[in-house]
Amino acid sequence: MFLFGLIIWYQFRPGVLMAKVEKVLLLLKNMVYESTSPQETLKFAKYYRNKGFKVLVILWGPMGVLLAKKDKNRGSPKYDSTIQECIDMGVEFKCCQLASDMIGLKKEELIPGIEFICSKEVVELFLRYTEENQLIITF
């Protein structure tokens, strides 16, 4: 099952039973303060985690990784506390190393609990979640 921009696509594979969805991969690439995508991503993360799913949020692209930067004091809404709430619930956050390097975002600037991930690992996650028929949602 693949959810892309809130459009559902089911992959039918003859002879393959649908696995029970236990993991959710959320991907955020959009501007932090110029769209509702970050708010939706965090709301989805909290919702699925409350339902007992293992939730992994990947922040990628030069604009998506801005959500991982700590001490965002300007703009509205204030995301840092919501991200911390998600982390405290068990939501895992990964920040794309390539995109972070492009904008000069350093590890010490990340919200505590958010780790870097390399592009190759993101590609591997796409394959693994697809092979396991787990949920992938992009924003």
Summarize this structure briefly:
With 139 residues, the chain is an alpha/beta fold. It has helices spanning 37-50, 61-64, 80-89, 97-103, 119-131, and strands at 2-4, 7-9, 23-28, 54-59, 92-96, 114-117, 135-138. The chain has a single domain (2-8, 17-138), classed as Hypothetical Protein Ychn, Chain: A (3-Layer(aba) Sandwich), CATH 3.40.1260.10.
Describe this structure in words.
Pfam families: DsrE (PF02635). InterPro entries: DsrEFH-like, Sulphur_relay_DsrE/F-like. It contains five helices and seven strands; from the N terminus they run E-E-E-H-E-H-H-E-H-E-H-E. It has 139 residues and is α/β, with parallel strands linked by helices. It has a single domain, classed as DsrEFH-like (Hypothetical Protein Ychn, Chain: A, 3-Layer(aba) Sandwich), CATH 3.40.1260. The chain is globular and about 50 Å long.
Write the layout of secondary structure elements.
Layout: E1 2-4, E2 7-9, E3 23-28, H1 37-50, E4 54-59, H2 61-64, H3 80-89, E5 92-96, H4 97-103, E6 114-117, H5 119-131, E7 135-138
Parallel strand pairs: 1-7, 3-4, 3-7, 4-5, 5-6
Antiparallel strand pairs: 1-2
Helix pairs in contact: 1-3
Task: Write a concise keyword list for the protein shown above.
139 residues, alpha/beta, Hypothetical Protein Ychn, Chain: A, seven-stranded mixed sheet, 5 helices, 22% strand, globular, disordered N terminus, DsrEFH-like, Sulphur_relay_DsrE/F-like
